[in-house]
Amino acid sequence: MDAVTVTDLVIDRGRRRVLPGLSFTVPAGQVTGLLGPSGSGKTTLMRALVGVQRIRSGTVTVLGEPAGSPGLRSRVGYVTQAPSVYPDLTVRENARHFAALYGAGAREADAAVAGVGLADAAGQLVADLSGGQKGRVSLACALVGSPEVLVLDEPTVGLDPVLRVELWERFHALAAAGTTLIVSSHVMDEAGRCDRLLLLRDGELIADSTPAQLRADGRSEDLEEAFLNVVRAREEVAA
Fold first, then answer.
1. What whole-number distance in Å separates Cα of residue 214 and Cα of residue 217?
2. How many helices (H) and strands (E) does the chain have?
3. Rg of the chain taking only CA atoms, in angstroms
4. For residues 71 and 144, what is the distance between their CA atoms, to the nearest angstrom?
5. Which run of H or E residues covers position 234?
6. Could you give the domains of the chain?
7. Under 8 Å CB-to-CB from 106, ≥6 apart: which residues?
8. Are 190 and 223 in contact (CB under 8 A)?
């Protein structure tokens, strides 16, 4: 079963075509990595998936409904690169505020905070936290609603290696419980942590596969080198 279906998606930003006509599906209950260099169109695509991006043509369907439909508001979570929480509230207060919006209680809020490794900072004002910690507060506030689809825009930026590993373990636990995750990154070493990969370059879908398949197609065990080999092969064909 597919949680997301994108068909012939075209998006323009001003006079520039950012996405030229993407088509792909995202299976339910997996971690799908959206990877590519900065400026490749990842954030624009993620905004389209949650229904906040104006599109020129094509369709985006999430959980059987058009992206952005009112019925999806409580079923889809979105964590942007910029923290989307209240700086003048504590970590705990933020989580409990968003929990109340979803009809959840303090127990669920506190569990979400603990789940992103911020239990010890629960009483601190968000304004006093580091950038990486603020991002985790945003993630906790998204998790407290138990979304069926969770879209995460570069959630591991600024985190130390230990926290990155812990967050990826959390992502896979969520997927094992049935949540569909779409996680963007510009760091290719995170590709190996995904179940499936969507690789973007200049708005085009270079690969839609698994880490194992990308290694095979790119003739390298190193995923970054494999990606570069796939890009070079496409450029040679185009030339």
1. 5
2. 7, 10
3. 18
4. 18
5. helix 223-238
6. 1-75+180-229 (3.40.50.300)
7. 96, 99
8. no
Percentage, residues of the chain above pLDDT 90: 72
Predicted confidence (pLDDT) at residue 52 exceeds the cutoff of 80: yes
Could you write out the DSSP letters of every residue in 148-208? SEEEEESTTTT--HHHHHHHHHHHHHHHHTT-EEEEEES-GGGGGG-SEEEEEETTEEEEE
Mean pLDDT for all residues in the chain: 92
Q: Each residue of 161-219: pLDDT tens digit?
A: 888 888 899 999 999 999 999 999 888 878 899 999 999 999 999 999 999 999 999 99
| Tokens, residue 64 | 């059987």
d(CA 111, CA 98): 13
pLDDT-derived band at 234 (thresholds 50, 70, 90) equals confident
Q: How many residues does the chain have?
A: 239
**Measured distance between the N- and C-terminal CA atoms of the chain, rounded to whole angstroms:** 38
What token pair was written down for 131?
Answer: 């950038």
Residue found under tokens 């065990």? 221
Residue 63 C-alpha from the chain's centroid? 16
Instruction: Calculate the alpha carbon distances from 123 to 14, 55, 99, 110 in Å.
Output: 43, 41, 17, 11
CA proximity to 9, closest of 54, 56, 67, 47: 56
Burial of 157 per CB tally in 10 Å (0-12, 13-18, 19+): middle
